[in-house]
Design brief:
The chain has 2 domains: about 30 residues, no CATH class; about 90 residues, NinB fold. Strand 1 and strand 2 form a beta hairpin. Helices cover about 50% and strands about 5% of the residues. The termini are far apart. A two-stranded antiparallel sheet has the order 1-2. Helix 2 runs parallel beside helix 4. By secondary structure, it is mainly alpha-helical. The chain is flat. It has 4 helices and 2 strands, in the order αααββα.
């Protein structure tokens, strides 16, 4: 059996999942994950990251929204690191698109707390 994904969005899909499980060969792996992050959560995250990049001078430097995303994901999940050819380190395995709604809520809360400690205001809080 190859890889397949079902989103349990209706009784019909749930029945299909149950059928697949009943017919699956021994040692088939099944993974259950919570719902993916929502588009409003994603929009809020990027708005917050943009505010951080515009308002905060961090260690004497301005950082891009993408840089702040990496920083916040590291704070949330503690990134793994891989050495690069120049002797530096590169964070790996951090994708916000893989976050569940609950994990995205945790990331947004972490960003709220960080911003409050560092004097950053978000547009929706003004």
């Amino acid at each position: 059996m190859s890889k397949a994904l079902l989103v349990l969005s209706s009784d019909q899909i749930r029945q299909k999942a149950a059928h697949w499980i009943a017919k699956a060969p021994q040692e088939t792996r099944v993974t259950f994950q919570g719902p993916r992050r929502s588009l409003p959560q994603n929009d809020k995250m990027w708005s917050m990251l943009t505010a951080l990049s515009e308002q905060l001078l961090w260690h004497g430097q301005k950082w891009s929204p993408d840089d702040w995303k990496d920083y916040m994901m590291h704070s949330l999940k503690r990134a793994r690191w891989m050495p690069d050819e120049a002797g530096g380190m590169v964070p790996v395995g951090m994708r916000t698109s893989d976050l569940s709604k609950e994990e995205m809520s945790d990331l947004i809360a972490l960003m709220d707390e960080f911003a409050a400690r560092n004097g950053v205001e978000f547009l929706d809080q003004k």
